[in-house]
Amino acid sequence: MGHKAIQLLCDIRDEYETEKCQIVINGCIGTRDDAYNLATTMTVEEAQAHHTIQIDVFSQTKANMITVFTLNYPEEVAGMEAIEFVDKVTQNLAIDYMINCAYPSSFEHVLMPDEPWTARIHGVKVRGGTFTLI
């Protein structure tokens, strides 16, 4: 399915892209199940295997970038690998990183301003309020 979706977007890009209006295609990766109902979670190894399949599909297309959304527990985040690791194995291919839809209390304690990997985070979209599961 991912191949077909990216190919459709590439066809649109080929038809409408101009020098003044470049079109970037983004492959989006999400959680295995409902990110807001953690009835089941994955181990680091399971998350790595799951997301590797998704990343491999996009890597075989003409997508310009991949974005990962809504990872809600540490094992899944670790399964996506850390910024330093991704930068190392891709020779800094990633344009940047973003923290999306997260409570500041869930990540502020790990941000280290003097560490180079922290400078790779170019976007933060936080959630307001306090964390509660309905």
UniProtKB/TrEMBL annotation:
Extract the InterPro entries matched here: HCY_dom, HCY_dom_sf
| Listed Pfam families | S-methyl_trans
Pathway named in the protein's UniProt entry: Amino-acid biosynthesis; L-methionine biosynthesis via de novo pathway
Instruction: Tell me where in this chain the Hcy-binding domain is found.
Output: 3-101
Q: Which GO terms describe its biological process?
A: methylation
The protein's GO terms of the molecular function aspect are:
methyltransferase activity
- Give the record's keywords alphabetically: Methyltransferase, Transferase
The record's annotation in Gene3D superfamilies points to:
Homocysteine-binding-like domain
Which top-rank group of organisms is this from?
Answer: Eukaryota
What protein name does the entry list?
Answer: Hcy-binding domain-containing protein
- Lineage of the species this protein comes from: Eukaryota, Metazoa, Spiralia, Gnathifera, Rotifera
